[in-house]
Design a protein that fits this description.
single chain, about 200 residues, alpha/beta, about 45% helix, EC 3.2.2.6, NAD, TIR_dom, hydrolase
Length: about 200
């Protein structure tokens, strides 16, 4: 399996063959928060390591509904890395993505590896800060049923052990991600990521 190197695979920019591609990693993030810091660095490092990554470029989307290509990219990915930042929950797209990740994880052997970038897991539990405020706003705009699904997805991901990064400078000090090796997902992901840390990945 080959994966395009040095570029993302945005919604609406894929060919019919690439939309059916199996990805090793789906990277979910709020562009204005993290694009120029951890997201681009982590993405570039994984591409250099030969890992097939789908990086959703939210600025390139058309319309409000989550599209079939994006759903297929999530379904066909083995590992999900949502980067939760201050304004992640303000994006309906991001919330739709994480809710679908949780749904896929329940149906199949998918893995969610969250990064908490400048936020804490308690924010995802809607007890504090911008996440609770954002969900209250979404409830008025999108309705209680839809918002409840997003809230439940956030709370479920908050229970998963992830990496807490207070700022971009913390990347070099974060713990190893050797936990990926026992997952057994793909030779390239296993060989390049196991026993590395984010300092290695973000140089």
């Amino acid at each position: 399996m080959e994966c395009p190197k040095g570029k993302s695979l945005p919604l609406g920019g894929e060919s019919s063959s690439s939309s059916r591609r199996d990805y090793e990693v789906f990277l979910s993030f709020r562009g204005p928060d993290t694009r120029l810091t951890i997201t681009d660095s982590l993405y570039a490092a994984m591409i250099r390591a030969g890992i097939c990554v789908f990086k959703d470029d939210e600025e390139l989307r058309v319309g409000e509904e989550i599209g079939g290509e994006l759903l297929r990219a999530i379904s066909n990915s083995k590992i999900y890395i949502p980067i939760f930042s201050k304004d992640y929950a303000s994006s309906k797209w991001c919330l739709r993505e994480v809710a679908y990740m949780v749904e896929c994880r329940k149906r199949e052997e998918k893995v969610i590896l969250p990064i908490f970038y400048g936020v804490d897991a308690s924010d995802l539990k809607l007890r504090t800060g911008s996440y609770g405020k954002a969900l209250r706003k979404h409830k008025r705009q999108s309705g209680e049923d839809t918002t409840k699904q997003w809230e439940e997805a956030l709370r479920e991901v908050a229970r998963i052990k992830g990496w807490n990064l207070k700022d971009y400078g913390c990347v070099a000090r974060t713990e190893t991600i050797g936990l990926v090796r026992p997952l057994g997902y793909g030779a390239s992901f296993d060989s390049h990521i196991a026993h590395q840390n984010f300092a290695d990945l973000t140089i």
